[in-house]
Amino acid sequence: MLSAPPAHRPDVRRFRFPIMLSSLFPLGWAHYLAGGLVIGAGVALLYVATGRLAGMSSVFSSSWSFVSARAAFQQPRWRESRAWRLQLALGLVIGAALWWLTLGPAQPLTTAVPAWRLALGGLVAGFGARLAGGCTSGHGICGIGSLKLPSLLAVLTFMATGFITAQGLAMLGAAP
Amino acid sequence: MSAAIFTVIAGALFGFGLALSGMIRPEVVLAFLQWQDFGLMLVMAGGLALTLVAYQLVPRWRRTPLLSAAYEAHTARMQRDTFVGSALFGVGWGVSGVCPGPAIAGLGAGNLDMLWSLAGLAAGAWLQGVFAAPTGEGDWQEG
Predict the structure, then answer these.
(1) Confidence class of residue A4 from pLDDT cuts 50, 70 and 90?
(2) Which ipTM did the prediction report?
(3) What is the pTM of this model?
(4) Rounded Cα gap, residues B108 and A93, in angstroms
(5) In A, which residues are within 8 Å of B128 by CB distance?
(6) pLDDT tens column, A108-153
(7) Cβ neighbours of B40 in A, within 8 Å
(8) Confidence of residue A5 (pLDDT cuts 50, 70, 90)
(9) What are the chain B neighbours of A82 within 8 Å (beta carbons)?
(10) Which residues on B lie below 8 Å from A79 (Cβ)?
(11) Main-chain dihedrals φ then ψ at residue B15, nearest 5 degrees
(12) Considering Cα of B110, then A141, then A74, then B96, what sign does the dihedral take?
């Protein structure tokens, strides 16, 4: 009597895990993990081959050095990295195009997010990422991958404000 | 030359992964930020797994990269700009569902709406450089 487990317990153990998975990942989980591993392979290859870190927000500063004479953009760190940062960006476009040709939909991707949100969000995110010295890739992947505590705290910070902003907009009726 | 080829190939892997994982769709990112789909955590975990191996272990096996003299070091700093900037970045990310990598990669999948994001990101980076850039050469940060 004392040692007998409750009759419902085996069912709970069997079903709780997949139910939890499908509520956390309603579109499935494998493509997320696979995609992340491919991203990591790219970041790792860049480092092993060239010693460079694959943060993507810097290209938006370094590329201004081609057209702006301002001191902020003419620093050696931007002039010296602007070529390879554009090469990396070109690779991103090529890689996504390869996905589109092999696994993607027949039609070009579109988004239901209105243009003003894309532009305004980009403006604020671009300013913020450059002020912070990194974004989801620069702090999130490269910084945490470098075991940098400031990067981990940066990620927690932008996750928090991202949650608040996206959920606040949703509460105000913005869709998606 | 070969460094350029490796850089483009590394970028192509990065871009393919962003597309495969759905990160080039703002709707998927916004679903994460609205706690409807936590897939972005798996993307970060997968990306970090191989990055940690490369950044932490490879320099112990090989003293220099294949094609250059030294590994670059990440220089994240515990300073105000890091956190003010990150807070702003999160706001912009929450408004648009787009961050720098997917804005660029999205073009490759034909999503021309990403031109709005790219214009915004470029304008934001310009404003930062003109009005908020640190002046000291010691303020190098990798992004």
Answers:
(1) low
(2) 0.94
(3) 0.91
(4) 4
(5) 61, 126-127, 130-131
(6) 999 999 999 999 999 999 999 999 999 999 999 999 999 999 999 9
(7) 32
(8) low
(9) none
(10) none
(11) -65, -40
(12) positive
Whether residue A81 lies within 8 A of chain B, CB to CB, comes out as: no
Whether residues B8 and A91 touch (CB distance < 8 A) is answered with yes
Nearest to A47 by CA among B100, B75, B64: B64
Residue B26 and residue B54: Cα distance in Å, rounded? 29
Question: Exposure of B52 by Cβ count < 10 A (0-12 exposed, 13-18 middle, 19+ buried)?
Answer: middle
Chain A nearest CA to B60, separation (Å) = 12
| Cβ proximity of B58 and A47 under 8 Å | yes
Q: Which residue reads 């602007």 in tokens?
A: A82
For tokens 């974004």, name the residue: A135
Name the DSSP class of A108: P
Question: pLDDT tens digits, residue range B25-76?
Answer: 999 999 999 999 999 999 999 999 999 999 999 999 999 999 999 999 999 9
Closest residue to A93, CB basis, from B58, B108, B123: B108
Q: Measured between CB atoms, does A53 come within 8 Å of chain B?
A: yes
